[in-house]
Write a structure and sequence with these properties.
The structure is a homotetramer of 348-residue chains. The first copy, chain A, is α/β, with parallel strands linked by helices. Helix content of chain A is 33%, strand content 18%. Chain A has twelve helices and 13 strands. In chain A, the strands form two sheets. In chain A, strands 8-9-7-10-13-12-11 form a seven-stranded mixed sheet. In chain A, strand 1, helix 1 and strand 2 form a beta-alpha-beta unit. Chain A is globular. The interface between A and B is large, with 47 and 47 residues.
Chain lengths: 348, 348, 348, 348
Amino acid sequence: MERKRIGIVGATGYVGMELLRLLCGHAGFRAAPPVSKSHAGRPFSEVHPAFRGLVDEPCADLDPDWLAAQCDFVVTALPHGVSASFVPQLLDRGLRVLDHSADFRFRDPAAYEAAYRLPHPRPDLCAEAVYGWPERYRDRIASARLVANPGCYPTASLLAVAPLLAAGAVRTDGIVVNAVSGISGAGRKAETPYLYCESADDVRAYAMAGHRHTPEIEQEMSFLAGEAMRVTFVPHLVPMKRGMLATVYLEPRSPVTQADLRTLFLDFYRSEPLVRVLADGSTPSTRSVAGTGFCDVAPFLDARTGRIIVLSAIDNLGKGAAAQALQALNLMAGFPETEGLRLAGLAV
Amino acid sequence: MERKRIGIVGATGYVGMELLRLLCGHAGFRAAPPVSKSHAGRPFSEVHPAFRGLVDEPCADLDPDWLAAQCDFVVTALPHGVSASFVPQLLDRGLRVLDHSADFRFRDPAAYEAAYRLPHPRPDLCAEAVYGWPERYRDRIASARLVANPGCYPTASLLAVAPLLAAGAVRTDGIVVNAVSGISGAGRKAETPYLYCESADDVRAYAMAGHRHTPEIEQEMSFLAGEAMRVTFVPHLVPMKRGMLATVYLEPRSPVTQADLRTLFLDFYRSEPLVRVLADGSTPSTRSVAGTGFCDVAPFLDARTGRIIVLSAIDNLGKGAAAQALQALNLMAGFPETEGLRLAGLAV
Amino acid sequence: MERKRIGIVGATGYVGMELLRLLCGHAGFRAAPPVSKSHAGRPFSEVHPAFRGLVDEPCADLDPDWLAAQCDFVVTALPHGVSASFVPQLLDRGLRVLDHSADFRFRDPAAYEAAYRLPHPRPDLCAEAVYGWPERYRDRIASARLVANPGCYPTASLLAVAPLLAAGAVRTDGIVVNAVSGISGAGRKAETPYLYCESADDVRAYAMAGHRHTPEIEQEMSFLAGEAMRVTFVPHLVPMKRGMLATVYLEPRSPVTQADLRTLFLDFYRSEPLVRVLADGSTPSTRSVAGTGFCDVAPFLDARTGRIIVLSAIDNLGKGAAAQALQALNLMAGFPETEGLRLAGLAV
Amino acid sequence: MERKRIGIVGATGYVGMELLRLLCGHAGFRAAPPVSKSHAGRPFSEVHPAFRGLVDEPCADLDPDWLAAQCDFVVTALPHGVSASFVPQLLDRGLRVLDHSADFRFRDPAAYEAAYRLPHPRPDLCAEAVYGWPERYRDRIASARLVANPGCYPTASLLAVAPLLAAGAVRTDGIVVNAVSGISGAGRKAETPYLYCESADDVRAYAMAGHRHTPEIEQEMSFLAGEAMRVTFVPHLVPMKRGMLATVYLEPRSPVTQADLRTLFLDFYRSEPLVRVLADGSTPSTRSVAGTGFCDVAPFLDARTGRIIVLSAIDNLGKGAAAQALQALNLMAGFPETEGLRLAGLAV
């Protein structure tokens, strides 16, 4: 495997850290010195002592020329709105970019502008960017210049419903996505609600007026279904650092059995290396995917009401962010898709 | 307030402990020596050192005559099936009983037998027993000989939907109850799945083939709606000791506004001392009700889909068990309904 | 019990919240509208929804005249240095004050100035103030105009060593206090190290260059021993909201037995309502004192080395702060010392 | 790297799981089908779903012949006393063994028998076995037939004191080791004290009458010091799954400075790949080593008392068990010592 160099911009946040952690065990990619505007000049391992002896270089400042000189690929983990203007500078210098923000996730810039209340400086790139969902856009990712890494909630939700929507097996008008996330989903922000004493022993729903991942979920569900769709999506925070579980409620178009559901999911994900359809009777568990790029899914028939329930567990920093990014980067670099990702969950 | 004496049978479990804890601050009730078959003869505070200096008596063995001699009321926290045969012995001795098991929650013994797969030894008492939901059966509880304390999931779910079902405001055929519970809901059982290392950092759904609280929820929803109803109910465990959040999805019969919903809930719960309808923009949080008998509820309109979402938070050991029991016992004894229950949540 | 009114200044912090929570069940004290400079005008229960229906008044601004008009007692939970200049204004208006800061804990203003690196504006009050340790200064607290509530680490440490130092049973030159605290000890500060994701799964020592509680511990140990003493004190943070355990290592002056130690502790604390000496074989546990004013202590002889080990558990917000304050306030008001404090720990 | 095959006996416990997890990313070792007496015949990934797609083979039963046919090395994670009689059967079949129990950790069988209250069936092997502490016995491990993996507390404690004892810089008679461990240290045992609801929010010391790791610590400290030594050791449980912090208190033989201490530690560990001496001002943190084989150490001078304090953090399942085992196995197999162990801590 020819070694390729990756620059990580915004490396001191949780997603950046997780990607660096995964790269420590990767045979093909080497990380360039991490880039962090707020910690420029400070050794990365001083900011994050878990990386002592592994990533000791000082953080570099944000500089597209320096990145172009150092890297084959750049991963940007910048706030929404910031990426939109920074990423084009990297593309202009011939770099291939995987962006963690929402700035290039929407095919329709108007949808982005409605959800994020920001004008989009480069609507042209919305058309070019590939939504970095490997199970659906594997080939396009491989050759993309710009990949928009999906949100964590969309990843968990879409993997739960894709087999059903693709088969036309469910009604498109009554889907409910109830999802819970660990606290790291809020990022490394020193804000009161994310303090230990305000998050421990607490479960709370949030964004009841509309989470910005909702239109992202709807965009991809609509593509899958071949028709415009709306979903009800309620995110919750639960007291753990990592982990996400989506519980999705759907109505079959015609009566199905548990065996039908299982067959449908097994067939749909048969060749997917990072999606695991659980055995009957088993339910996904966030700890089983902690620290990994796996998504564990299981469909259930509620015999009482005829409704379908799909459970889907990911690590919000793993398949929901950094591991999914690495899967896409492997595709972009021509490496085996799961290089660095054949990891067992840190279940204990 | 004339002092009344309460016997607690099965006192060393989590519900028994919580009731004893609440009774430490109660002006009217005194606890008789706690009853525990498995710890008979051992000082209660040796089993549970949190009670040192407060409840130091040895645990008494299970003996209906002793209870009849000691107590005005008996609370039974026994396994399902055990209560059904023990409680009648107490009633026969003239005691008034509040039972925590499911044995007397069903008006129809057949529903009980289907859910718990046990024959019911005293179907006659199913008719007599009052479902201990004070917000609905306040008067009947006050004069009851036998009160069946509701399950924790039913309590959270029913308080979420009661205003809507009672008003006929929602369709009865598509209700989804997604609920999460702290680990104490599983009881004090030394089983692998409830070990710290198997529960921390984990969220998992369970009982996908049908939780036994489902028919209990359906019974009371059906009574509210005036027609037989079925719901989809999915319980989950989350890593905290106490707390329960129900997220309920419903479809309005005709279009409603957020203001309509809020008015409906405020009116419905206006006189309820332990149900708090939150201000708009605020969402229930399990830590705000920890250690208390409060239920915090808030209805939301999902403008995108027209669906109604109701959030409802309780402490599964509080309003979901011991505090609700104490509320009923206050009614039974003629004490002020919230005596010993004007507690602030242990939010930190 | 004649009702007395307490003003709480700095009520929205964790100590203020805990005191308000305890006052909800107090027969003698009523809380005046809480005072908070940063949340003035905002309903307290909007800031802390756990208090809905219990403390709904808007927070009052910091105003000594208003406090003098409203209150019999004032509890100040203000930053170090701020109390020193605000408290005298309350005393001047005839109020009796219990102060949670360190500003009046030192008899010698120079010790305060060395530890807190602040000049003391009112050294005269250092002489007058009573260190609010009820087990030692009960009578002086009862008549005090100004009580300085002890720090949490000093409380746990001093209760562990008092019987031994008072009896002259241990060497004064080699004491080690190893202590752990829940995260709430850091206060309600939106700072990165106290985020959920930075505190969960973590244990870390801090203040290795010298914690400000060290000279406070030394002051009181020196008084107990009747000679100037120094201790080695290392505090640690552990992933829980509340709770503190001190593990103290001492050398006996002459050989002792486990039975000697036990007798010494039992005798010393025989009349203390809030210190519980555990039975042999039992060890203090933070969860047994959670939410309470109890301190659980147990001495052990390390037969291998002849050293004495004393374990001491408190709730850092309880006996380590608000419950200890309430104990002192009960004394000041002439109420029974444990009014509102006969609480069972929230062990689950 | 020539591939070697490792059999893991007792693979379904936490240490076995962690070793399997580490082996997933190892270039030289391949895991044989895991051996578990209690789960024989059941697919490993059914017992531990985190291993789906990675370790799906059925668990094999305990059979020395089968192991001899399959493996180059065997790791035994069996209860104390069981290893002593099983391991010889493996050695007799020509296998090289790394044993996780205490059965071969003591050079003197009498010390083992005193600590574990079991007669030792093969005292001859006590002399042959090598204590698997790579930083001290690297060469002997490389050629050993039988390696006894150190206990977690001994590992953290010994790495904290080795530089000081080896240099003769501290008194040998007054050392105190105060240590805390995550709950996984108790193993995968369905016992009440390790339930989530009994461990969360709790810190408690245990084994006050003498922990079995004490004589193990003393054996190796005595070897380092060149004289018989006793220590005071108090272990505590804290509410996290993994992680261990030792806080060690020592008295210098002659006055030292912080700079002296730092130089001593830096020199002593200069060539050690898995021991990180922290920069001044930094303190070890269990989350920085979570999931890794690192030990982070830092010495401090308590200027107030002249005492030395050394902090040492490991993952009790990592450097305290499975990662240390892998380090030793790498040495035994002639692989690079840190193969599979250049991991960043799962700090979030």
